[in-house]
Amino acid sequence: MPAKSKKQQKAAGAALAAKRGETKKSSLKGASREMVESMSEKELRDLAATKRKNLPEKKS
User: Fold this and answer.
1) Does residue 54 belong to any structural domain of this protein?
2) Separation CA 43–CA 60 (nearest Å)
3) How far apart are CA 53 and CA 8, in angstroms?
4) Where are the beta strands (DSSP E) in 1-60?
5) Does 58 map to a domain?
């Protein structure tokens, strides 16, 4: 499932780092905090791996 915006892709990357233990979960805010609890590592990896070239900054 590819990300629909740059913000979603960025949040998934932050959540993935926390899930792997590279950053603290307490440092997450907003959507990334919810993502780390509700999504698997594979789902987060798929979202974070989305190419950013033609993505809008924020989905309207």
Assistant:
1) no
2) 23
3) 14
4) none
5) no
Q: From the centroid of its chain, how far is CA 58?
A: 14
Residue 40 lies in a domain: yes
Six-digit token string for 23: 């950053």
In the chain, the number of structural domains is: 1
- pLDDT score, position 11: 94
Q: Let me know: does 48 contact 31? Beta carbons within 8 Å.
A: no
Cα 38 off chain centre by: 12
Find the domain containing 12 and state its range: 6-48
pLDDT in tens, 13-56: 999 999 999 999 999 999 999 999 999 999 999 999 999 888 88
What pTM value is reported for the model?
Answer: 0.86
Paired tokens of 21:
């233990």
Query: Is residue 18 domain-resident?
Result: yes
